[in-house]
Amino acid sequence: MVNLPQQLSLSVNLNDDATFENFYAPAHTHNAMVVRGLRDQLDGSGESFIYLWGAPGCGLTHLLQAACHQAQEMGLSVQYLPLRDLVGYAPDDLFTGLEMVDLVCLDCLPTIAGRADWELAIFHLYNRLRDAGKCLLVAAEHNPRELALSLEDLRSRLQWGLTYQVHSLTDEDKQQALQMRARARGLELGDDVAQYIIQRLPRDTNELFWQLARLDHASLAEQRKLTIPFVKKVLAI
Question: What b-and-e string marks burial along 64-92, b requiring 16 or more CB atoms within 10 Å of the CB?
Fold first, then answer.
């Protein structure tokens, strides 16, 4: 990470669970192709600029942070910037020197749409990263053509490189993803319990994984298996 103002340190921490291995993308699916594209970007065999977009909860933040973790394991320098948390700061201060970073990830891009200072700063950042041969990974809820941008030159830049739509998971996929996360935590989550959780909680995967973490902590504390009565008690559902 580059040196950002001290008050931003909590905003740019990476989630340890956000890895490519933890992202549910079975082989031969569209999302598996997206993951391959991100891996290729990092090893230099793919595009240096990638734009990801998709509906809330589809895993955009997870993928950006997973790319950062993978890059760090490869010995590359990274900077993850959640624009939703940083929009109150001066972009020129935040972006100074980022052209020296191997991978820059800009999350929540629509947050800055219509803000002339931010749009211009990202436009110049893109050009500096390109000239320096570095990588940029951007995430938004809309494709570049649908963003409410004022700077058309920035919209044009965002359409260079590769654009991937990240597909939302079906309920069956979410069950498999939840069980995969449970196994990674050393938990046994049966089909009946997983279905019970998905049917009674918001379908957003971030919410599901957060509630799984709650169950993990409660299971450890009480030395209990994940049964429907136990889940019902802990999550009050």
Answer: bbbbbbbbeeeebebbbbbbeebeebebe
